[in-house]
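On to our target:
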Amino acid sequence: MNRTLYRKLVDAHTVAQLDEQNVLLFCDLHLMNEYTSPQAFAGLDEHGRRVLMPGQNVAVVSHVIPTEPGTIRVIREAAPALQASNLRKNCEQHDIPLFDPQDALQGIEHVVAPEHGMIRPGMVVICGDSHTTTYGALGALGFGIGTSEVEHVLATQTLVYRLAKDMRIRVDGVLPVGTTAKDLILMLIGHIGAQGARGHVIEFCGTAFEAMSIESRFTVCNMAVEAGARGALIAPDRKAARYVLERATDLHGVARDAALQHWETLHSDEAAVFHVEHRFDASDAAPHVTWGTSPDQVIPIGGATPDPATQTSAPMRRSTEQALRYTGLAAGVPLEGTAIQHVFIGSCTNARIEDLRAVAEVVRGRHVAKGVRAMVVPGSGAVKRQAEAEGIASLLMDAGFEWREPGCSMCLAMNGDILADGVRCASTTNRNFEGRQGRGAITHLMSPAMAAAAAITGTITDVRRLETHHA
């Protein structure tokens, strides 16, 4: 039988077929954070159960941790502090490895896990966080789960899993100069919609993805969930194998050879059938920026905001009207030149070393615009140290950026990094929902290079203009 990569991964991890639509799925790795695990551990304690396979669970404090510069991390608010201390207590009780606030390698779970070689092609990886789709960049099936499912996984290392449909998105060609993986995925979400991949696992393929670095692939797979996808996959190639082997120090000798042999089988069969297929040309891509309150409300930097009056669908018209009202934008006007007051560069989408290097290239020789507060939050302690060693951190600080400690930070306002009402932010994050970065705050999603350009000019700016000018 010809199978997609998705079905190969599911079949290899199916412990039992429960019915036509559901299987009992074995999970190779379960990542936990401080806000989706407390009730799960309480449920275990209530029934006198232990964690079945502690070594295949890892915990990271990332969402509530403060990112102010300093050697000691203190969570001052009572509720987040309790979440972090409960996670530490539960991990100690059940022998689960933990990256706690004082760990030098602490960071965002979706940055920390792959950089330590925990994520490998062919794995099933789950976490109480929707952006677990990130790991598809390495050919691993990652997806988010709920708190009740967290308890089930802790107790059994399995999950009752409803099968998804297969979608393939092929993008061939070369991305134009000044256009990045973030721009491409924003363009794709804009085309298929925020529910365009609902109920599906997306397999990304084509020469555009083959040419991407692994870090760029992380960005693409991370944001697939913003199109409603239940998962995202890119078949592992030599780049993926090299990335993993450089970090998975336990893979050597016979184990390394066996792993490489297995990874070569992880691709969709030539005659495999997908429920939905899309094709795009990479040369059509351009820097993209969101104008509204959903990641699919996005346009190329040279475009204009939509006019609700021209939309035939009543729900779409109402949604557009509400988004324009919330963001304080008029219909039919260009985004370029819109003043911003804040820039946030970070999150599990764009806080890796490649992202920070891109920011440094734009910023070099320039300074943050007057009246703009610009923050850079590296994705992990390892990224922070590397950026400091490469001189990126000092370059950014000299240019007027705040250089923070690692964590989720202003991606979701669950910590002290919160925008005030009415502040407009150029952000490298993955969501621009109402109130996402602070009650009444306005978020425009864009690439790290575009965010850097906004910081320098004080407005939403086509970074290609700056690069040409700088040259």
Notes: The chain has a mean pLDDT of 96. The first strand starts at residue 14 and ends at 17.
